[in-house]
Write a structure and sequence with these properties.
5 helices; 434 Repressor (Amino-terminal Domain); single chain; mainly alpha; 110 residues; 53% helix
């Protein structure tokens, strides 16, 4: 009995789908902000710091820190992200990469 070969890809990649829908940049920003918020909250928890104490060390308001920690709010500045990271003992790294389309895996002939 011959087993059926399962194709390696079915349709497009998630990135290409989001790009076709015109929402790739928005989805990337939301994902990055979600991870950033999570990392900052984890660092606060590990160091047992309150929002008030972090905001004070950042020389900002608690409401500004709340926006920074809100995974759905993407309108934060690099300056506030950097200040929060420094206060929490984290090092921030920025990367810019070429916007190349992912290569599709070609199907082999059966």
């Amino acid at each position: 009995m011959k087993s059926k070969k399962i194709p390696r890809t079915l349709g497009s990649t998630l990135d290409s789908f989001l790009d076709e829908e015109g929402i790739l940049a928005e989805a990337d920003a939301a994902a990055i902000k979600s991870v950033l918020s999570w990392k900052l909250k984890q660092a606060m928890k590990k160091k047992r710091l309150t929002k008030e104490s972090v905001a004070k060390k950042m020389k900002t308001s608690r409401s500004q820190l709340d926006r920074l920690l809100d995974p759905n709010y993407t309108g934060v500045t690099l300056s506030s992200i950097t200040r929060a990271s420094k206060v929490l003992g984290l090092r921030l790294q920025y990367f810019v990469v070429d916007n190349e389309k992912p290569k599709q895996i070609k199907k082999r002939a059966a």
